[in-house]
Amino acid sequence: MPIWIEGETSNLVKPRSGHWYFSLKDSEAQIRCVMFRRENAQVRFNPEDGLKVMAFCSVSLYSARGDLQVIVRRLDVIGEGALRLAFEKLHGKLEKEGLFDSRKKRLPPSFPRHIGVITSETGDAVRDVLTVLNRRYRLPQISILPSITQGARAADNLVKALRLAEAFNRQNSRNDGIDVLLMVRGGGSLEDLQAYNDEMLARAAAQCSIPIISGVGHETDFTILDYVADVRAATPSAAAELASRSGQEDLVLCQTLQQKLFQIITSLLGACSIHIGQYKKRLRDPRRQIEAWQQKLDDLTGRLRTGMQLKVTSSRYQLEQLAGKLTATSPGHLLEAARVRLNSLKSTLHGRMTHAQKQLRQSLSSCAFQLDSLSPLRTLNRGYAIVRQQSATITSVRQVEPGEPVAVFLGDGRMDCSVLDIDPNGKLSEG
Fold first, then answer.
1. How do residues 254-283 score in pLDDT, each as one tens digit?
2. Cα 207-197-157 angle, rounded to 5 deg
3. pLDDT higher than threshold 80 for residue 380
4. Do both 119 and 243 map to the same domain?
5. Which of 248, 270, 304 is where one domain is finished?
6. Looking at the domain assignment, is residue 307 inside a domain?
7. What range defines the domain where residue 389 resides?
8. Are 25 and 10 a contacting pair, CB within 8 Å?
């Protein structure tokens, strides 16, 4: 995960490989750092020991020594590092809002009649722009909209200059208005260019109705305005060149257009000559042409009549099919079909219920017969008896004593008896 580390450089080593090896430390700790050649080539100062810096880096492990180290991706002197952080934060915010969308960019006019220049009146940038415009393109009107380009009030001044240009266009006709704006400034440190990284200026430039060409600093300098502007130029002179055309370019363009126009006219004349010859060959007696048209008319009339008959027949057939489908799906038809099906289901239900009742009766009769065969009463009718003492059934002679009363139940009634004697060995013999 990338992080920012602030600290003081020490033990800086720059071997022939081009990589930088150093440590970042503060009053309490230090950590090893490496910055590879492809990244340190972008550093705009010469690092040395004891320099306060901010490093954008990622944590890594140097396995050869087992040391924890960080790989530095960007290195800024303290002060510039804070500005760089603010730049990246604002850049990300405006990019998400769509202020840098390339689809919103407008191409400046190829032949502007009126060019506006927003810059300092006393800087080198305005002289470079005027020199390039006077050398390359003397036709347009040039308006200088002065503004301070550095310091705490610079961003406000630049916004006011933009609004002044738009107010000028609203008060003048389209032909007299400013066609393109150049926002230019010479090179400097990141702090010097900070006015062009202002959020208010970025939003004003994005809403500006006039195409903007930015030319701030040197080729390696990038500001928020560069991303918002319709076209970005590396320098103020390059911005002036993008807004103008040189006389030599116009001459070459005119010669090229002249050659293309001559070729097009020659080609058209040749084609017209060929067509005229062909039309002469095709020219016939008008009466024959009329007869041919009449014949074609008769043919088309017959084909139309046949086609209409086929269409009527096809439509009638489709109508009959639809009528049949409509009849099949009419409520009366569906109701009759449902009634027939209901009667069929009632008949089936009645048959199944009759069959089920018959089976249940047979099953009930079988169960009644089995129950009757197992009934104690049937056993008593065969000559057996049940002996009870109070509510307990006597199943052993050891359950009673001589002289105790017992009740004897037979198939046709009850007898109250008294036990005279007990013989455990006495058995009922057969026969």
1. 778 888 998 899 888 888 888 887 777 776
2. 65
3. no
4. yes
5. 248
6. no
7. 379-418
8. yes
Between 292 and 41, residue with greater pLDDT: 41
Q: Please work out, in degrees rounded to the nearest 5, the angle formed at the alpha carbon of residue 29 by the alpha carbons of 26 and 33.
A: 85
Higher pLDDT, 77 or 195: 195
- Same domain, yes or no: 30 and 109: no
